[in-house]
Design brief:
The protein is an alpha+beta fold. The chain has a domain of about 70 residues: CBS-domain. The chain has four helices and two strands, in the order ααββαα. A two-stranded antiparallel sheet has the order 1-2. It is elongated, with a radius of gyration of 19 Å.
Length: about 100
């Protein structure tokens, strides 16, 4: 079987523009169940962007804790390793507001 037989034709592709926001890219990727999307200016392919790359940039390189407008989340932790869990969250840049032992 050749690639041509199973590929999506260019005119049917969901494509990002280099000026789109990361939030918009994530929304398109998730809404369509994709792992990545091509990026094009008009008919010129300029690259591709994956959901994993977006998360890597925001969480690893820039130490952001906000994705898609979510700045705060409440969770309840139970168990004997709570101290370790809180320490890991703080190391990743998350702010733990209230910690009851």
């Amino acid at each position: 079987m050749r690639v041509r037989a199973i590929m999506t034709p260019a005119k049917e592709l969901t494509v990002l523009n280099p000026t789109d926001t990361a939030k918009h890219a994530i929304e398109l990727i998730e809404a369509n169940g994709f792992l990545s999307l091509p990026v094009a200016e008009g008919t010129n392919f300029v690259g591709f962007l994956s959901k994993q790359f977006i998360y890597d940039v925001y969480f690893k390189e820039r130490n952001h804790t906000e994705v898609m407008g979510i700045q705060e989340i409440s969770i309840r932790l139970e168990g004997k390793d709570i101290d370790k869990i809180v320490k890991k969250l703080e190391e990743k840049g998350f702010k733990v507001r209230e910690f009851i032992r």
